[in-house]
Amino acid sequence: MSTFGSSGTAPASSIAPNDCNVAQAGDDGVSSLIWSPTQNILASTNWDSGIRVWEVAEQNGQVQANPKAKANHENQAPALASCFTPDGSKIISGGCDKAVRMWQLGQNLPANGSPQQIGVHDAPVSCLGYLPSTNIVVSGGWDRKLKFWDMRSPNPVGALDMPERVYDLDVRGNLMVVATAGRQIVSYDVSGEPREYSRKESPLKYQSRCISCFTDTTGFAVGSIEGRVGIHYLQKVAGKDSFAFKCHRQESQVYSVNAICFHSHFGTFATVGSDGVVNFWDKDNKQRLKGFNAIQRPIPCANFNAQGNLFAYASSYDWSKGSQSHVPGSPNEIFVHYTAEEEIKPKGKKSGGTRR
């Protein structure tokens, strides 16, 4: 087990002084952040039931984000998860109303109408993905189900029983990985009808919090509540082995790893945690590329844009310490960090590593 390094500790409002503070970030905790795959459109879901959209522009490292559209899940039910369709024209969302909803964005934004229900679970919807080879939406729920939806029909085109409640899933190309309660991880080939590829216990000792596919789809990274990340290869890759490392720990305190975000070009990745820290990593060379100073609140979610030069992250309560630690009215903020290439590009070979 290796440790890449400790994080900074000075509290601030954002990880870097010039990060863009996104306006109208919501009235309750931010649960997901996603980027359109076709343009710099950022979307969030919130515990206040909101789905919000911003148009983001960057020039010479300066970032601006303009609010463009907003919708809500019905009955003020918290929205927990989201994904874009590959053409960027639709947002799929899910949450505590147990519904999977589709929001059609206008050609020039704002959105056209209210989100349309395209599916339902028997318990809250915790995560979503899109299967590009079959144009199917996949949803994971606390009802221990994966369900598959054709956006034109309210009935699922398929469903899979999972070993436990679904906590997170990720789809990249023809690989889908799913993390459930009980530390179970199931991977699928989704080139056609989903076919189970492997089923295993997490390499980490405590509850899984997030999971993300490698950009080359040879494996996945899983993060847990114990401040640890597991790097696991599903396929044998010459010179590379699975391993785990500690992160998001401050002296004797251990914090949850809330999100793992891979950079589309370099294959490096970011982790964010309940300690309010963002770290950039290189798994191949087993290096921490950059550690930012801690901010004042937990970071529940984050994501790189398609080009990899913008990194969005939220600053709000993440429920890692339960409802007793929630302070009503506490700030909920979203920031966009311009990511210079030298921050996220691999720095070179280290002993035991392989340069990308």
UniProtKB/TrEMBL annotation:
<keyword id="KW-0677">Repeat</keyword>
<feature type="repeat" description="WD">
    <location>
        <begin position="118"/>
        <end position="159"/>
    </location>
</feature>
<dbReference type="InterPro" id="IPR001680">
    <property type="entry name" value="WD40_rpt"/>
</dbReference>
<dbReference type="InterPro" id="IPR019775">
    <property type="entry name" value="WD40_repeat_CS"/>
</dbReference>
<dbReference type="InterPro" id="IPR015943">
    <property type="entry name" value="WD40/YVTN_repeat-like_dom_sf"/>
</dbReference>
<feature type="repeat" description="WD">
    <location>
        <begin position="23"/>
        <end position="56"/>
    </location>
</feature>
<dbReference type="Pfam" id="PF00400">
    <property type="entry name" value="WD40"/>
</dbReference>
<feature type="repeat" description="WD">
    <location>
        <begin position="84"/>
        <end position="105"/>
    </location>
</feature>
<keyword id="KW-0853">WD repeat</keyword>
<dbReference type="InterPro" id="IPR020472">
    <property type="entry name" value="WD40_PAC1"/>
</dbReference>
<protein>
    <submittedName>
        <fullName>Nucleoporin GLE2</fullName>
    </submittedName>
</protein>
<dbReference type="InterPro" id="IPR036322">
    <property type="entry name" value="WD40_repeat_dom_sf"/>
</dbReference>
